Description:
Number of strands: 0
Distance between the termini: 79 Å
Order of helices and strands: HHHHHHHHHHHH
Structural class: mainly alpha
Mean pLDDT: 85
Largest sheet: none
Low-confidence stretches: none
Radius of gyration: 26 Å
Amino acid sequence: MSTKQENQVKKQTFKIKLLNFIKIFLIFFIIVHLFVYLSIFSRSARSGVHIKAKTFMSVATMLEFFYIIPMYKIWGWNAPLAKPFVYIRDEYYKLGNKHLPADDGEREMWWFIIKYAEYDKVVFPEIRNLKIKIYKYNKCIKYKNYDEAALYIVKPEDYKEHSKAVEEIYNKLEILAKKQIKDSKFAETRLAKFIGLARSYRGNKLYIYKLDKDVNRKLNDKEDLRDPILINKKEIQRINHIFSIYKGLLSKFEDQVKLISGVKHRQVDKVLFEKTYSEYLILNKINQNKFSCNDELIDYYGGAWDYIMDMVHNPNK
């Protein structure tokens, strides 16, 4: 066999191997995605309610966790490479919502699974990273490392979209609390998700306020150490509103309270929520000379501290 023929055979062999590899890869790709999709769909469809909506929402969920969140974690929120996947996800998300009744809270449950997951895993960590960036900037300025400080400058527009995400959480809280949820599996997690969202709202709103203060104040200004939420009338009204909704949920969904008490991390979330929100409201009443020792807020605040201290002294309980 001549050298030319040998080269042709090698090229032909290489093409065959390459085609086989592509076929195997495509088969593996399809099987993995089909398995993930069926896993998501089967878990959500157990109740047999709104099945058509769940077929679309399951695709949106798969795209979110398989592609969008990993890409955002590598290249940052709103990375251009992720936009095609975001577009497809949003189209499936819209199709899913079209097949859900407007008055069914399952819409908010899917928002929590798909959209809030993106905020929680990508957007809000970015807010905290911006806070670190400001700290490094101030440190560089202090030691007159101006060239290095330029790397850490944060402008208000840098976190404008992040602030929108926090506002969206607040707007979803009341809707989540009020709507009926036909799917029993989704319905039984309503209170737990409400608590998680309420804690997220307060924590990330606090970061946004602190970022805004740090970005806009002069470096030589004396730092205001007061909690920016506590001194903001609008935010205190929101804290009060959220806590009022929460109290209504406690009396309405006693079965969910029992479910939460049986899962330690959810019970801890509930206790920390009650401690933080009741503390804001107590301090606000003290500032206005309206506080009474008979206020029911004392029960929430004291009960939360009792649980925390018991957890500290009996960590294996």
